[in-house]
Every structure is written in C-alpha cells, then in structure tokens.
Design goal:
This protein is an alpha+beta fold. It is 30% helix and 24% strand. The protein has a 3-stranded mixed β-sheet with strand order 1-2-3. The mean pLDDT is 82.
Length: 93
C-alpha cells in the first residue's frame, strides 16, 4: 500500500469468473451483426478479446454502426474496423 491507503495494483476479474473464448466472442459478434445490420458480408475475427471486422457494406454509416454494435458487446476489449463501404456518394470531401 502507498501513503494514501490504496493498493497500487488493481486486478479486474470477470463477473462470476465467466470468460468468453475468442471463438464464442466471434460467434456472438457475427450473430449480433447479422441481426442488427442484416449483412452477411461482414467477417469477424477475435483474438484475446480484440475483434477485427472486415468485408463490404453499402455506406459509411453502416460501417460505423457495425463497429459501435460490436464495441458494446460484453467481452470485447477493442475493435479494428476494416469494413469497406461500397457507395461513394456518402463519402466526405
């Protein structure tokens, strides 16, 4: 302990000791994206809680929505979004 009475080391344990495997996390992420965005073209990979998204969607807003959906998923510690938006009329100049 330091002079303030607080411990310097903090460990965060999963609730009730429940941890998702990377495969389980990827399956949940894929299912959630298919249900929320209705895209089957988004590929999902997970490694140590970090999710990588890739594939094609129609607009940049769909791309951003997919990322936000996954960020809120329990067990996700980070997201890399490599999804491409095929529609160019929505791109910022």
């Amino acid at each position: 302990m330091n002079n303030t009475g607080f411990s310097k080391r903090i460990e965060i344990a999963p609730i009730l000791g429940w941890v998702l495997s990377d495969d389980e996390l990827a399956i949940r992420a894929r299912s959630l994206l298919r249900w929320k965005t209705r895209y089957n073209s988004i590929h999902v990979e997970a490694e140590k809680g970090h999710v990588t998204l890739s594939g094609q969607v129609d607009s940049p807003s769909d791309r951003d929505a997919a990322e936000q959906i996954i960020r809120k998923l329990s067990g996700v510690v980070g997201v890399t979004n490599r999804i491409n938006a095929t529609c160019t009329r929505f791109r910022r100049m």
